[in-house]
Amino acid sequence: MRLASDMDYKVVFAALETVCEDNISVMCGPSDLPYGAVAKRLVTCMKRIQEHGRALEPVVASFTTVFHHYDFDAQTPGNGYRTLVKVLLSCLLHIIHKGRYIASNYNGAFFRADHNASEMEAYCSALCQLRALLHLAQQLINDNDYGQLYSLQDGDLTNKFVQEYSSMHKACFYGRCLGFQFSPTLRPFLQTVVISMVSYGETYGKQQSGLGTAALSLLTSGKYVIDPELRGAEFERITQNLDMQFWKSFWNLTESGLITGFNRIASSPVQMNFTLTLPPVTLRLQLASDPNLTTTVSPPIAHWGPGPVHMRLISYELRDGQDSEELLAFSRTDPPPITASHLPWVQKQPRSPWLLIHFHGGGFVAQTSRSHENYLRGWSKELSVPILSVDYSLSPEAPFPRALEECFYAYCWALNNCHLLGSTAERVCLAGDSAGGNLCITVSMKAMSSGIRVPDGIMAAYPATLLTTDASPSRLLTLIDPLLPLGVLAKCLNAYAGVDYQAVQPAVGSSSLSSLGRETAVLLGDLTQGASNWIQSFLDPMRTSAGPRSLPSVSRRSQSNEAPGTPTHSSTANCGSHMNYPDGFEPLRSECVAFIRPTSCPIIRNPFVSPLLAPNDLLRGLPPVHIVASALDALLDDSVMFAKKLRDMGQPVSLTVMEDLPHGFLSLSQLTKETEVASEVCVEQMKKIFKQENPTPTLRKRPKLEETYQSASPSG
Fold first, then answer.
1. What average pLDDT does range 263-274 have in this prediction?
2. Whether residue 585 has pLDDT greater than 50
């Protein structure tokens, strides 16, 4: 599905026109085929696709002439405009492939007419919605300043974007067309995630035991496998309006091995892997500008006062200090971790000159170091470095600035106690993904503001640098992305901002991993493994649609003349028109309208929340920042614009854009070759930080904007 060049769009559109004409000719020509009703559906569908294609070709042509102006540099092609064109062409290639199959096999004995018509109708719906996204992107490119990807000053355009998300039909992207834009090897995984989520959502909140919830999920998953339209509609419903506690509980299932259950691949064994708890005591650290002077660092206090900070130490090799009684006194592992005294045959290594401090992703609301343990183990082995991963408190119970305070405190403690972690800390690297990437940047900003040593470098994977719903071309992907829908993203951002955080109440039913119980975790792990095998057996994206082994299509509306499970254009009457679309065109509308709370809380635009909005003075002096992003990530423009901002300031920064991968690819690093390569790229960036010559702690005056952070704390 990868395109050879940006100019391939002409070949794709020409092929699309040919396929449409061939299919219309076959269906309308003299024939004794028994598929009368289905033929009419296909003819109607192909004519609509042809109409969309003819309208979209000049739009794509206009983007290809200008989207290079929005890249980080000539060697790093990547921005939301490129991505939208890439996604559109990927959809067209699927249509061309399916259309050629239909035209060649329509007379075949094993041709499943209804199934293939439903497939083509689903992609026609997806094409219609993508046409709407390209139109929205045209509005952005016309209204934004030259080279700018975000409409930071245009609240009206952002509001229209949110309105369109709320009412536009999205189910087609979660059913038959699920994940068409990503690497084909990821599609079974995405289908498994969606099926697991809708099955879990059906039983969520019901008065069931943990075992009962998992059993019901197992029993209900089958219908979502065989009915893509039902799956898409249910997933749309879930992503539109289910509460934050649902998302926290589902994402936290990764703690039980939900992700690892997909592949059953063992991660690298390590000598040290145990949790620590730091008591809330005041620390003293040297000033970077004058080591003879010290400053105090208070423990986290936001919202409920001083409290402990939890962390995990991972080390491929046992190193000096890691088995000391002083370190083990911080352990909260039961039973205590195994030390060299228990394993006399294990050779203890000297302290590493390097130290990696990690902040995990999860939208600030879910997951822990355990969720990210698989790739951290591999990193510890490949880099030969001890890793300290911080389990910061999560929102909405612990909104900003609690997580930042805890991560900063853990960073300071690690500098003072690196000898216990098996490191001399000659080089210190911060690494994190998504929300963790945000915390890497803001912890470094806090270190500069406090006058203490900053890390020697930052490796941020797909970081969130703008925690708002401001419109950008890559943010338009939240209308089709199964892993990062706008409704979920907005809930996470508002939770971190502390919107109504005091009103959060524990959800009834399965609202956390602990309430699910061990039985649920085991059964859901089996569910995902079984669902993955089942999906791959007959939904392999590399197989054709023909063959006697294929499962018959099951659709509640398969006999109708419109796309099964798809709203018609007439449904827009209930929603009204939010954008001025071209005459005769209107996107499909959803039967389930979302409520999106605007990210209007002032805290959202605080530079320690959204570092993209930070004034230059607060960013000047950051260590080298290496960003690894994905071309198909809704947060791609966050990375591109932040990298541009640092470069224009003269700050050391690099940007690498991976192809065909979703947001969160590090957590999928063992699933496919593509995600493994992406993880290796992250490792290479960290090696650059550790091996750079003569790194020196950044010396700078405390910025006058330190009070910006302080005034943002709801605790006063």
1. 70
2. yes
The ranges assigned to domains in the chain are 6-157, 184-263+470-574, 279-467+603-712
Residues 6+ apart with CB under 8 A from 675: 186, 661, 665, 666, 668, 669
Long-range CB contact pairs, 573-578, < 8 A, 24+: 575/167, 578/160, 578/163, 578/164, 578/167
Residue 712, class by beta-carbon neighbours within 10 Å (0-12 exposed, 13-18 middle, 19+ buried)?
buried
Euclidean distance between CA atoms 467 and 464, whole angstroms? 7
- Catalytic hit among 633, 637, 638, 660: 633
Residues sharing a CB contact under 8 Å with residue 510, sequence separation 6 or more, in sequence order: 203, 204, 205, 208, 210, 213, 249, 516, 520
Task: Give me the sign of the Cα torsion angle 212, 213, 215, 216.
Answer: positive
User: How many residues are given for the chain?
Assistant: 716
Q: Which of 199, 217, 434, 639 is catalytic?
A: 434
DSSP letters spanning 375-433: HHHHHHHHHT--EEEEE---TTTS-TTHHHHHHHHHHHHHHHTGGGGTEEEEEEEEEEE
Rounded Cα–Cα distance for residues 484 and 655 (Å): 22
pTM: 0.85
Q: Distance (Å, rounded) from C-alpha 357 to C-alpha 477?
A: 31
Active site residue 68: no
Whether 310 sits among the annotated catalytic residues: the reply is no
SS3 284: strand
Instruction: Single out the residue of 625, 626, 631 nearest to residue 665, CA to CA.
Output: 631
Fold of domain 279-467+603-712: Rossmann fold (3.40.50)
Tokens of 73: 């540099």
How far is 625 from 356, CA to CA, in rounded Å? 14
Rg, C-alpha atoms of the chain: 26
**Coil, strand or helix at 611:** helix
| Catalytic entry in 303, 360, 626, 663 | 663
pLDDT tens column, 400-441: 999 999 999 999 999 999 999 999 999 999 999 999 999 999
Q: Map residue 286 onto helix, strand or coil.
A: strand
Give the integer Cα–Cα distance in Å for 396 and 243: 12
Q: By C-alpha distance, which of 151, 323, 250, 160 is closest to 482?
A: 250
pLDDT digits (tens, 9 = 90+) for 277-323: 999 999 999 999 999 999 999 999 999 999 999 999 999 999 999 98
Phi, psi of 336 (to 5 degrees): -60, 155
Predicted pLDDT of residue 536: 42
How far, in Å, CA of 639 to CA of 661, rounded?
A: 15
Band of the pLDDT at 592, cuts 50, 70, 90? confident
Determine whether 540 is an active site residue.
no
Question: What would the mean pLDDT of 503-517 be, rounded to a whole number?
Answer: 36
First-residue to last-residue Cα distance in the chain: 53
Closest-CA residue to 471 (of 599, 378, 558): 599
Instruction: Express each pLDDT in 20-73 by its tens digit.
Output: 999 998 887 655 555 678 888 999 999 999 999 999 999 999 999 999 999 999
Between CA 51 and CA 20 the distance in angstroms is 10
Q: Which helix (H) or strand (E) holds 45?
A: helix 36-64
Contact 172, 126 (CB under 8 A): yes
E strand or H helix that includes residue 189: helix 187-203
CA distance linking residue 239 with residue 286, whole number of Å: 48
